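Risk mitigation, structural track. In case the binding assays with protoporphyrin IX containing FE fail to produce interpretable data, a predicted complex structure has been prepared as a fallback.
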Amino acid sequence: MRQPITRLALGAAGLFATAFAALAQVNPTANSVQEGALMEALQSGQSVTGRISIPDSGASVLIDPSGRTWASLHTGTLQWITIIAVLGMLALLVAFYLYRGRVRVEAGFSGRKILRFNIIDRFAHWLLATTFIILALTGLNLILGRALLLPLIGEGAFGTLSAWGKIAHNYLAWPFMAALIMVFVLWVAHNIPNRLDLEWIKQAGGLLQKNVHPPARKFNAGQKIIFWSVIIGGALLSWTGIMLLFPGEAGPGTGWQFYQVIHAVVSAVMVAIILAHIYIGSLGMEGAFDAMGNGEVDENWAREHHSLWVEEKLGRDAAKSPPPRARATPAE
Ligand code: HEM
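Fallback model:
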């Protein structure tokens, strides 16, 4: 028979071992968010954060209520802004075409050509144009693709298209920015607003009536509006786009959401403006495309749309080529 003191010692040792084993285990519910508290936070629109051991404080956010505001903006308001901008401009262009038809060269083609844009101008323009068009289509896919394209082409094709579209969007942004800088440097001197522009605007550039041709230098007021929209809009898209490419720079939460909203709204406005530009630079105005096609325009087209520029240009060209010298008389 064991002594009572030995039994007491064995009992104490057993108790100590059990307590030690319990302490060594991780308590799975200690310090974690209880389900009820989580649901309450979700319903009251609070943000839910956890504990992290890395320096990026943004990574501790589990649920950010501003994300839901952004999601509804993204799937609602931004989609509508984009649809209204694009369809609104297309409707305006159809109305303009029905009212005015194609803007013709009223004096007819003269057959004499004037160089309007050299190869460097045209390279910059087409680099800007092609990259912008692809960026616009791939960007529109992000805003409207799921609603409009997915039901038409199915999940597989939409997934592949969107994945390639995202890569194209991220990489073509760089040549777009390079072309934007080129276009700015090449044409800014011709796009400073002046008094002539007011007269051009008063007469709506002669676009609404036949036989009205307000005077203009190399770029008329309408083109200056296109130029500055492209430069300012393009700069805003570049800045917000870089912030979205490198979200670490934009800061957590609302930072990148703010840039995303600005990026989407500016894109919608720019797409609408560029639709008008493409129409008037191709189908809408006879003789206009040549300026960016082979660089040469018909003299009568130039006289009707850029009368002062033609005078300057012809004057300069004449000054450059001196009159033929009188033939020397051979000595007798
Ligand atoms: C197929 C598409 C396009 C066509 C047919 C086109 C056509 C033209 C033409 C013919 C001109 C010269 C007008 C003149 O003689 O003064 C021009 C100028 C210009 N283009 Fe385009 N373009 C297109 C796309 C774009 C795009 C996507 C952008 C920018 C994102 C752009 C930006 C400009 C700018 C800033 C000018 C100078 C200002 C002006 O003339 O309006 N173009 N374009």
